[in-house]
């Protein structure tokens, strides 16, 4: 499967948005181990968001590797290019 660079950027942005949602839920719900814990609905919502983020992050990593292989580049070089296109100044990006 041929992946164009813009698709990699879009995948990375989607994974970042999903990660932001996970962090938002953590902030909103507080620690799951606090007294009283999370409600069943909160737990389900959080776990769904977490799975979505992990799935998207995995897709990004696979697409990066495929794209790099097709172009004869290293995966880390392609990842740096994608992060620059997304607007990262550093960090690990979408990795789960």
- Counted beta strands: 0
Helix content: over 70%
Low-pLDDT runs: none
SSE order, one letter for each helix or strand: HHH
Number of helices: 3
Q: What distance lies between the first and last C-alpha atoms, to the nearest angstrom?
A: 23 Å
Radius of gyration equals 16 Å
Major sheet characteristics: none
Described by the principal axes of the CA atoms, the overall outline is elongated
What oligomeric state is this? single chain
Helical/strand content category? mainly alpha
Mean pLDDT: 89
**What is the beta-strand fraction?**
under 5%
Describe the structure.
The protein is mainly α. The chain is built from three helices and no strands. Helix 1 runs antiparallel to helix 2, helix 1 (5-29) crosses helix 3 (75-86) and helix 2 packs across helix 3. The longest helix is centred in the middle third of the chain and has 32 residues, at 40-71. It is elongated, with a radius of gyration of 16 Å.
């Amino acid at each position: 499967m041929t992946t164009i660079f813009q698709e990699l950027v879009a995948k990375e942005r989607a994974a970042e948005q999903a990660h932001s949602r996970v962090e938002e839920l953590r902030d909103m719900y507080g620690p799951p181990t606090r007294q009283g814990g999370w409600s069943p609905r909160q737990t389900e919502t959080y776990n769904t968001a977490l799975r979505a983020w992990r799935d998207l992050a995995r897709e990004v990593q696979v697409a990066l590797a495929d794209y790099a292989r097709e172009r004869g580049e290293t995966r880390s070089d392609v990842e740096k290019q994608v992060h620059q296109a997304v607007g990262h100044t550093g960090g690990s990006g979408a990795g789960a």
